[in-house]
Specification:
Blueprint lengths: L1 H23 L6 H23 L6 H16 L1 H11 L10 H17 L11 E3 L8 E3 L38 E3 L6 E3 L4 E7 L10 E7 L4 E11 L8 E2 L4 E5 L11 E7 L2 E3 L2 H4 L13
């Protein structure tokens, strides 16, 4: 009987620990301190409350953890869902085994159920009116890589992960974008119609960013940034107009010290960085034909 009750007794504390550490993650960088803070919320806090009640209540810890996690999920669903999506699997690191995949899938399922994505008004598609014989068209936003749809694979690749100073306040522990892709030479595409603002082919100018392209969209209201590029299209220059889904560069690892090749993709609106991942989940994938330009 005790063996059968074990999951019932462990799961609420485990869920509470995951939720607590996800919420603390933007504030606590050290993994040991983060784990301890989660344990305090999931185990020590309910034990202290039971001690203050001066009575031995069966399953008190499990009931207490279930209630406070449920209260968070009901009252602050977006915040909890966002924290779980960005940081809920932090303790798995870059593990990809069957257990890690199962835990990540469970956390992603919970995050998706709680977080409601409301896109910023700056990212609505633009209807281009007809000119002459040309019909009306829609300028859409594009994922910067070809399908299958790529998303940051773990906590260290997501927005808000720990990075060295300087750290803009909106970027939590410092990562102001997401890391996607993994193969050197993968084509990289412009996210939307815009004007090339910066092209940096010398990877020594900013050793942390490597070869870089920055594109301004919607008269500079939005900027998309593409870092760690292997190569940049030969004719790409500041001031040039590009279309959404147009090939601009190739993925690489310039400016990358420890991790595998990837594209660091970032978005800012009005000079303030935002999390690109919810947009990458829904933006149109570029066409293969454009990759051959």
């Amino acid at each position: 009987m005790r063996v059968l009750l074990l999951p019932v007794r462990v799961l609420p504390a485990l869920a509470a620990w995951v939720v607590a550490t996800a919420l603390f993650a933007p504030l606590i960088e050290d993994p040991l301190w983060l784990a301890a803070a989660g344990a305090g919320a999931a185990i020590v806090a309910p034990l202290l409350v039971r001690w203050r009640l001066r009575r031995k209540i069966p399953f008190f810890l499990e009931i207490f953890d279930t209630l406070w996690v449920a209260a968070l999920a009901l009252g602050f669903a977006d915040d909890v869902g966002r924290a779980l999506r960005r940081h809920g699997d932090w303790f798995l690191g870059e593990r990809t085994g069957a257990v890690a995949r199962g835990l990540r899938a469970t956390i992603e399922w919970a995050a998706a159920g709680l977080e409601r994505f409301e896109p910023d008004g700056a990212f609505v598609p633009v209807v281009i009116p007809p000119t002459g014989t040309a019909p009306a068209a829609v300028a859409e936003w594009f994922h910067p890589l070809l399908g299958p749809r790529r998303l940051p694979p773990n906590g260290s690749a997501r927005f808000g992960a720990a990075r060295p100073q300087p750290r803009p306040p909106e970027c939590e522990l410092g990562h102001c974008g997401v890391d996607v892709g993994q193969a050197v030479g993968e084509p990289v595409f412009a996210a939307f119609d815009g004007t090339v603002e910066r092209v940096e082919r010398d990877d020594n100018v900013d050793p942390r960013a490597g070869r870089t392209v920055i594109i301004a969209h919607k008269d500079g209201e939005v900027r998309s940034r593409y870092l760690h590029l292997d190569s940049i299209r030969d004719d790409l220059r500041p001031g040039m107009r590009v279309s959404g889904g147009e090939l601009i560069a190739r993925l690489g690892r310039t400016g990358v010290l420890h991790s595998a090749p990837h594209l660091h993709f970032a978005l800012d609106v009005g000079g303030r960085f935002i999390d690109p991942e919810p947009y990458l989940r829904v933006w149109r994938l570029p066409a293969l034909a454009l990759a051959r330009r």
